[in-house]
Fold this sequence. Notes:
Number of helices: 6
Number of strands: 8
Number of domains: 1
CATH class: Mainly Beta
Low-confidence stretches: 1-22, 134-139
Largest sheet: 6 strands, mixed
Amino acid sequence: MRFIAIAACVFAVGCSASANPGAEMSHPDVRVVDGDTLRIDGERVRISNMDAPEMGAHAKCWAEAALASLAKRELEAIVGEYPDITMRRVGTDRYGRTLALVYAHGHDVGEAMVTQGYASEWVGHRWDWCVPTDFHRAGGPMLGIKAQIDAEAHAAGLR
């Protein structure tokens, strides 16, 4: 189930050339900072078309911190499984990070993270990861994962 779009692309003809026009060369040194930020060849790169939950002290609630760990783990799995990482720079954010569309084996990493439910599409502002699960039933990101965390917390007496 992990990163189905990229796995399918591995077997497709010509997917890496056409899926990311204008992308730069492959980057061998890629490290995951959090669910939507990478360090590529020493450069801090924010994946521009997605928003993942904030980690640690930056999280607004326990659920956001838990979701952030899952998102980071998934991004690490993608980078580890598909080390052919390329990017197309699109700007700089207010923290000085490079904003870029990032591709793994020719497929859009941000789009895959959103499709798999580990992030929300970037719409110009952060998603509120701390609203009750019922709100997410309307189609918010991480619906299944958030519901599972809520159920586990409830069973453990944390909620």
